[in-house]
């Protein structure tokens, strides 16, 4: 038996204007479609905007806030920090890095 895991489909489906992978970028849980991703985000708070609860890809929080919350007050330094932290906490494949074995 092989212990290999199927590769991640980084553009499995569109959700909230973004292409989303078929696994959670934070915990590797399977999220094969938008409905399962919304359920997972509601249960875990992984990859959702704290202002509107929509999906935000890793490293995309600043752009999301600039577009979706342009008329709201938000701290650009805090949002940029959140983007950096999210990249650090995301799984290597979600950051665009190859896992080192």
Number of domains: 1
Query: What count of helical segments does DSSP give?
Result: 4
Strand-residue proportion: 5-15%
The first-to-last residue Cα distance is: 20 Å
Largest sheet: 2 strands, antiparallel
Mean pLDDT: 86
Oligomerization state: single chain
Residue windows where pLDDT falls under 50 for at least 5 positions: none
Q: Write down the overall geometry.
A: globular
Give the SSE string: EEHHHH
Q: Helicity, in percent?
A: 25-40%
What is the spatial order of strands in the main beta sheet? 1-2
| Structure classification | mainly alpha
DSSP E strands, number: 2
Task: Describe the model.
With 101 residues, the chain is mainly alpha-helical. It has one domain (13-95). Helices cover 37% and strands 6% of the residues. It is built from 4 helices and 2 strands. It has helices at residues 34-44, 61-68, 76-89, 92-95; strands at residues 13-15, 18-20. Strands 1-2 form a two-stranded antiparallel sheet. β1 (13-15) and β2 (18-20) form a beta hairpin. It is globular, with a radius of gyration of 14 Å. 19% of the residues are buried. The mean pLDDT is 86.
């Amino acid at each position: 038996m092989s212990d290999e895991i199927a590769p991640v489909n980084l553009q499995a489906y569109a959700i909230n204007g973004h292409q989303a992978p078929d696994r959670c970028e934070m915990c590797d849980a399977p999220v094969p479609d938008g409905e399962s991703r919304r359920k997972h985000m509601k249960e875990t708070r992984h990859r959702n905007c704290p202002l509107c609860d929509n999906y935000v890809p890793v490293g995309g929080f600043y752009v999301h806030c600039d577009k979706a919350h342009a008329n709201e007050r938000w701290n650009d330094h805090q949002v940029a920090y959140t983007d950096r932290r999210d990249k650090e906490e995301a799984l290597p494949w979600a950051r665009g890095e190859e896992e080192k074995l």
